[in-house]
Amino acid sequence: MLKLPRLLVFCMIASLAIFAVACGSDEEESTSSPAPATGAAAVAAEPTPTPPTATANEAKIGEQAADLLKAPEANAKSGGTLDYAWVAKPPHYDMHQSGTTNNCTPQCPLFDLLVMNDPLDFDRAIINGGLAESWESNSDGTEWTFALRQGVKFHDGSDFDSADALATYNRIIFPSENVNSRRQGLFTAVESITAPDANTIKFNMSRGVSGGYFLQALASGFNVIVSEDTLKERNDDLKESPDYPGTGPFKYTGHVDGEKWESEKFVDYWNTNLPYLDGVNVYHMSGSAGAQQRVAGLLTGQFDYARGIDPQSYYEWVQDAPEGIVPVRFPQTTIIAMWYNTFTDGSIFKDAEVRKATNMLFDRDSFVTATKDTRPFFAGFGFSPYFSQYALPIDEGRKRPGMAPTGPEKDAEIAKANEMLAAAGIAEETPVRVLHTNNGWQKVMGDITAAQVDASPHFKVSQEEVEYSIWIEKTEEGDFDISMGPLVYAFADPSAYARPWYHSEGKTNFSKIGDDKTDSLIDQIDAELDPAKRLALTQELDLHLDTYMPLSPLLWEDFVDGYQSYIKGYDFPGMQGLYNAERRGTWWFDK
Amino acid sequence: MTKYLLRRLLYSVPTVISITIIIFLAMRVIPGDPLTSFYGPGEVSALTEKQRANIINELGLDDPLYVQYFRWIGGVLSGDLGKSFFRTMTVGEMLAHRAPTSIEIAILATILSWIIAIPVGLTSALYKNSIMDHLSRFATIFFLAVPNFWLGMLVVVFSVLVFRYHPPSWTIQLWEDPLQNLSIIWRPSVIIALGAAAPLARMLRATVLEVMSEDYIRTARAKGLDQGTVVSRHAIRNAMIPTITYSGVIFGFLLGGSIAVESAMGIRGLGSLLVSAIAERDTLMAQNLILIYGIIWTFINLFIDVTYAIFDPRIRFE
């Protein structure tokens, strides 16, 4: 049970936050959301997440089981409606044009993907739990062919075939002018898609693509298969259609705008093992009061699952969980980083030594500590997501420039950074403009960023706080000296984040800097089919980036949820990101 | 009387027009991009310039302001409040869905505030400086000082932790399930009533004390009327005028939804709808909600003026 003093503090914080909400600071609804703790600064006794050992484990090439997906428990049974508490409503209903889990949370269970992450073991592989029964590639990865399931029906009773898969992927990869396909960038290697027959779809690549990357890209939860007829009937516009049919385990039955989304079991679902639940209701509760409502609803049994609980409750429950409640923390696919202006005439950050020194001024742990009660984060120790198989081990990460823990080691690192700045000829109180986003915890981080840079005798900081869209605009234009903010990435594969972030022509390489070695390594990573070699290349890239610091990775976001212990049939502890295969088909109630 | 009402109604026209202009302009000078709110930060940054321009054009936000203004007013006058681009429900449907909860809370809270304030205020006045007076003054100051949304949060937290009780977090209309509906509205109603009753009781106490020293009270007593008759027929009647005025103000305020309490307690009423509309830069929804508040206030004031005459025959409409 929550202890009284903490409750009162929570109430007071929340009451103040209400007015922030009333003033428009509804950042909790942002699609990116984080999670706690880093090393020494983590909350006491709260288990610190650890990245997997960076061995040359098999990249997720995929598993093609002969049996249909089902819950692993022998006693799995049907029945019950899942009441699921989430934050905000979908901004629109077009999954292909969405990048927010506000869509995925209510809508993903209505659809199938071509291939999917294994909901029973996220570390295992991509599996054939979607509409592709099997697949194969040619030896150099330039042709990927998928055999589609037969006997699959859409919720409107129509049959699924390759024309639907083709229409879907043409829309995602080669969208019409009015469609803003958010996953298009994941498929830059795809040259054409064909449907040789009614049960086959084939992707033709301009270059070889590894299965670890390509299958993961296909498995993005947003790449839902819709019917060709639906797209034609609705003029390729699904933004205002909440009820377009999918083939998923649940069928849309209705929604109340901003309150509730309802779906029921699709009785003609092709996988006769699934779903176990009779229906799924998603409730939207936004703002600070929304977090309180989700926790309250979970504690009183109103909700079976509450996504995005407040970190304070999470920490409390890790120590002493209320009976029947399970807290869980998992990584979300968002980086908090700082970019440097290396392209404006006269910018001091053109000099790599200045960037490297500035990176060492930041005390990562202090950021985590300052935001731990509102957002849980993990201090970054490298240029790959900390939880991915590509990340360098934490012990090595702590020894990297700028990553020293708070205390004497950090103080020494800062002193060294100031020596480097002096050696680089940076005069005292050189003006530096720090641009950052202004929503809630992002503002706190911006303030800390500014303060830590300003603490150096070489810098005199001025701050500019702006909302996210303006931040993106100004950052893209280079209207900053140092820019701090969050960026969401699709999934933890280097081809998904390294090219846009670190390649000299990357779309979100806001520092606009690169070198030949980086570009070459990224090209090799994209083309390498051997998982072990790909891992080695990625880690080589990670260490190489330290030599010129194109950006300062600051934090990686986590997420905290709570659920009733009777929910089974899912890899809750292994969850990674919000955008994968949460279709809830395997979920069942053990009660 | 009819002339008076017509004249007052006529006076209210420029008031309402002014409200429409102010809210229309205010929603356009608030910093923030509606597309960011609509698509989310990550989404909007992925739009191309052309896509942004198309959306802005579809929404009519690239029209001159006066065109946008008259399009909105034209819709309102024809009974079409429009369809917000943030929602699948029309503004009218959203209001019809959310308003009943706020209206129920307003009515229940107003009734409860009277039930609390009148006995407390009268007792305090009639037994001035007694223990009862001191207690009631302490209680009224306490509930004046404590923000009701904060009380609301405490109620939510304690009812969850102590009683493991939490009412539904979604709308259930009175006609769908009266008991469940009551379970949603009773707590905010009580919280709001306590907050509203405090100033009401203090006002009533002060007014009754003032009235009780008037000459006509002394005259009533001199006529041999007993204390009960003096209080009920002369004192209360006159003391009620400011009380009614204040109650009317509170009621009008609550009809639009108590923004803080609804937000704090997760009530799906008009107040929380306004908060989300402003946060999302949903200009159409916010404009219409504030226009409705303006109209409610105008009519509440008119109603209050009319009720004056009922309690004070000296007031004439001429």
Secondary structure category of chain B: mainly alpha
**Helical coverage of chain A, percent range:** 25-40%
Poorly predicted spans of chain B: none
* Principal-axes shape call of chain B: globular
Provide a count of the helices of chain A. 16
- Model regions low in confidence, pLDDT < 50 over at least 5 residues of chain A: 1-60
Q: What is the strand content of chain A?
A: 15-25%
The name of the CATH architecture of the largest domain in chain A is 3-Layer(aba) Sandwich
Multimerization state = heterodimer
- In the CATH hierarchy, the third-tier topology of the largest domain in chain A is known as D-Maltodextrin-Binding Protein, domain 2
The topology string of helices and strands of chain B comes to HHHHHHHHHHHHHH
Compute the separation of the termini of chain B in Å: 8 Å
Report the count of strand segments of chain A.
19
Sheet with the most strands, sense and barrel status of chain A: 11 strands, mixed
Main sheet specs of chain B: none
